[in-house]
Structures are given as C-alpha cells and as structure tokens.
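Lab notebook, bench 4. Still working through the backlog of constructs that have no structural model yet. Next entry is a single chain of 253 residues. Request: give me the structure tokens for it.
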Amino acid sequence: MSRLAGKVAIVTGAASGFGRGIAERFAQEGCAVLVNDIARPAGEAVAAGIRAAGGRAQYAYGDVTRAADVQGLLDAALAHFGALHVVVNNAGTTHRNRPLLEVDEATFDRIYAVNVKSIYWTAQVMVPYFRQAGGGAFINIASTAGVRPRPGLTWYNGTKGAVIITSKGMAAELGPDKIRVNCVNPVIGETALLEEFMGMPDTPENRRKFLATIPLGRFSTPADVAAACVFYASDEAGFVTGTCLEVDGGRCV
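Model written out:
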C-alpha cells in the first residue's frame, strides 16, 4: 500500500537536488505534490515527469522569502488538489566555503532569508490552515552543519542551527493543534551546491577529503533524504514530532 495515499504536499526548492528527489518519491507513494521553485522551466519539467510516470503534480512558482508568494503556494495546493497535509521546507542556499569575515552582508542576508525566514512565512501561512483542518506536518530540511559545525561555513551553519531549534519550538507549541514538525539533517550531497560547500573544485581528490569524514564512505543522495521525509510525512510518524533525523552516513557520530 502506498504510504502517502490521499495526502497533498508542498515541496519547496523541488526543481533539483533533494527537493526533486522528495517530490518524486512522495508521488510514487501516492501523494499529490505541488512542486515549488523559482527555477520555472526546471520545476515545470519535474512536475511533468511525475505526471508522465502516473503521479499527481503541479508546478507553482514562488519565492519562499516573500509572504505573498508563500500564500500563493497554499492557494495553488488548494486549487489543484483541494487540501494540504504536508509542507516540506527544502528550499535552501549557502555561501561558498570561506573564512567568516569574507562573507558580505548581502550574502548573509540572503542565506538567512532563504533558509530561515522561509520557515517563518510557511508557518504564518500554513499553521492557520492546518489548525482549521485539524492537523498537518512540517518537514524542515536542516543539515548536519546545524549539529556539528565546521570552519568555512559559519553563517550557513548558523542558519541550519536556527532551523533545528525553531522546528523544536514549533513542535512544542503546535502539538496541541495536532501539527507535527520534524527535521531531516543531510550530510553534504551531490547537488548543485556541492562545490559551494566544498569551497574548492569538485575533483576526485577533493571529494576524497570530504568522504573521509563520513563513516559509510559516500555523499548523501536525494533518495536518502526522500526516504526520511516519507517516514515523517506518513501516518507511521503520527506520534513523532520535534525530532531530527541525521541522514549522514555516520558523519555526526
């Protein structure tokens, strides 16, 4: 039986990387998916691919740092699918791996807006709906960087630490409303941000330096992250809230 049959989810940043993997896996598990991204052609292609494979999906443009755009995502989900059960806050960005004093203010503001303020806006928009509906679930994609920070990504690490503690606070406050809030913490993965996280060219030699810190010896994949999200979105996790699941091959041990 499909684990997400009858559910509707919004997945932000779903045109590529972890978000695309989450959207595609959710659809395979019977979930209707609103594919959100600021990259319109790529997002539309992901939604079309899901439909071609027999799933239910629609693309919706939206900048998750803007209140009106986030409201538009809820409106689109209700217009296309008639309900909303799960919000996956996956959209994220980083600064290039570099000394903390070399990150300019505009970059600092951008990563906090995308990684943290987006959760503020999805809460502002979706919590009232979930309360009226009798419950719902947020899945926030944080990072091992928020658990075991390392030099070179200091301001990015801070955003992910904020995501983790904010999620726990939301879980404690929204529990009486039957709204669950959990985090997935991936380790570095083969996404479009890989070189930014590494701060160096993506070569086999440079990859080995990072892989040496991961006991299971490989990067995280969209499939790894999607599997964790399916659990959190499913009724199997009905009594699970305020938790973080490291999907990191042992990186945080």
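Notes after review: Helices lie at 17-28, 40-52, 67-81, 105-133, 154-174, 194-198, 204-211, 222-233. The chain has a mean pLDDT of 95. Flag for follow-up if needed.
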